[in-house]
UniProtKB/TrEMBL annotation:
Annotated organism of origin: Kocuria soli
InterPro entries named among the record's database cross-references: Met_Synth_C/arc (IPR002629), UROD/MetE-like_sf (IPR038071)
Keywords annotated in UniProt: Transferase
Any one GO biological process: methionine biosynthetic process
Name of the protein in question: Epoxyalkane--coenzyme M transferase
């Protein structure tokens, strides 16, 4: 849906969880409360967080990803880890990819994906990464990732139904007219250690077939599905040694084709795709530039494209959209406030960033957003202040553009 009379606003998805929800998540995992009791806590929380979004002026709201369990108030991986309880074919393990150093291979080009501790950015700044006073990494609860040991199936019907019902009920109560639910991409789903599928292609397409059920449930309910896929950009930094750009584009092309397979038949206007370079607060000097990714991005069958643009490693890349060839019926959803700094962007800066994108693709095709999810990455008070600055900046840009 294009803008008609103003710059609309949204965000990437994750918003700070309440202490009540964090406690309920832990109690449910420990078997101390039932699923129904957990859902009741989520319902109350979703109503409140949607009301807060509307109060702050957010147009396209979501459930804060409250149905995606966070392990603690600091959790960079909830966007991915939530899928472990919604997929069959997985076996628990003692692996924590944020800490382990075991390598995994994929093709083509003999691509080698490493864990977080072996990223090239971390190698370059190892002293800073290992210094607790640097603020790059914050204490987090260890989360064990499972392994794929059998055919992947989707088992999250009850969970995604709760996500949908909670958001729709909250939208009805608050008068919100547009809402989205985030869901894991096939490419990111495939980053779980695989001990069953014989080829990378079999693995990625199995992930696509399983996750399609979640995408379809969301769009069938009249909501927008946001495909969360850091793997398209972020995996570049997980490859040692650094590959050629050509080999890397071949690696992500399979993931894009599998995603389009999963999206087949779904209304593009109810699909938006989120690309980012990862949510950790590091230097990011080894990020792959957007100029290499913009063409693959636009080949994804989505109606909107969300991406980091306030991140200071990528803020200059707005110029690329002048010649990107964005189709007339598509929108871009650039981040104009960042999750990677505690500094709250001034509304004038937010407005300037929005106007840059409007000059590149047209005012009707820019929805102002955040770089990535704010929940689990910023203090709740700062996260809400950033949303407030986002909508204030969009109002300034609206006055200038409409």
């Amino acid at each position: 849906m294009l803008n008609s009379d103003r710059i609309r606003t949204t965000h990437v998805g994750s918003l700070p969880r309440t202490p009540e929800l964090l406690s309920a998540n832990e109690a449910f995992q420990d078997g101390k409360i039932s699923w129904d009791e957990l859902v009741a806590t989520m319902q109350r929380g979703v109503v409140d967080i949607v009301a807060k979004q509307r109060e702050l002026g957010i147009d396209v709201v979501n459930d804060g990803e409250y149905g995606h369990t966070m392990s603690s108030s600091v959790d960079y991986g909830a966007w991915w880890n939530y899928s472990f309880s919604r997929l069959g074919g997985l076996t628990p393990s003692d692996e924590d990819r944020w800490a382990d150093t075991e390598q995994r291979r994929s093709s083509p080009g003999n691509i080698v994906l490493t864990t977080f501790s072996d990223r090239r950015d971390r190698e370059r700044f190892r002293e800073a990464y290992e210094d607790p006073s640097s603020g790059i990494l914050t204490a987090r609860k260890s989360v064990k990732q499972p392994k794929i040991t059998g055919p992947l199936t989707y088992t999250g019907q009850e969970a995604v139904a709760a996500d949908i019902a909670n958001l729709k009920a909250a939208m009805e109560q608050t008068g919100a007219t547009e809402g989205f639910v985030a869901a894991l991409s096939p490419g990111s789903c495939a980053r779980v250690t695989n001990e069953y599928y014989k080829t990378d292609e079999e693995l990625v397409y199995a992930c696509a077939d399983a996750m399609r059920e979640e995408y379809k449930a969301i769009t069938d309910a009249g909501l927008i599905v946001q495909i969360d896929d850091p793997s398209i950009a972020e995996s570049w930094d997980q490859i040692n040694p650094e590959p050629s750009v050509e080999d890397y584009l071949g690696f992500i092309q399979l993931r894009i084709e599998a995603l389009n397979h999963a999206l087949e038949g779904l209304p593009p206007e109810q699909v938006r795709f989120h690309l980012c370079w990862g949510s950790w607060h590091g230097p990011h000097t080894t990020d792959l530039e957007l100029k290499h990714l913009i063409k693959p991005l636009l080949s994804i069958n989505a109606g909107g494209y969300s991406f980091e643009a306030a991140n200071v490693r990528h803020a200059h890349e707005w110029k690329l959209w002048k010649d990107a060839g964005l189709p007339e019926d598509k929108v871009i959803i650039p981040g104009v406030v960042s999750h990677s700094t505690n500094v709250v962007e001034h509304p004038e800066l937010v407005a300037d960033r929005i106007e840059n994108f409007a000059s590149a693709v047209g005012r009707e095709r820019v929805i102002a957003s955040t770089d990535c999810g704010l929940g689990g990455r910023l203090h709740p008070q700062i996260a809400l202040a950033k949303l407030e600055s986002l909508t204030a900046g969009a109002a300034l840009a609206t006055d200038r553009l409409f």
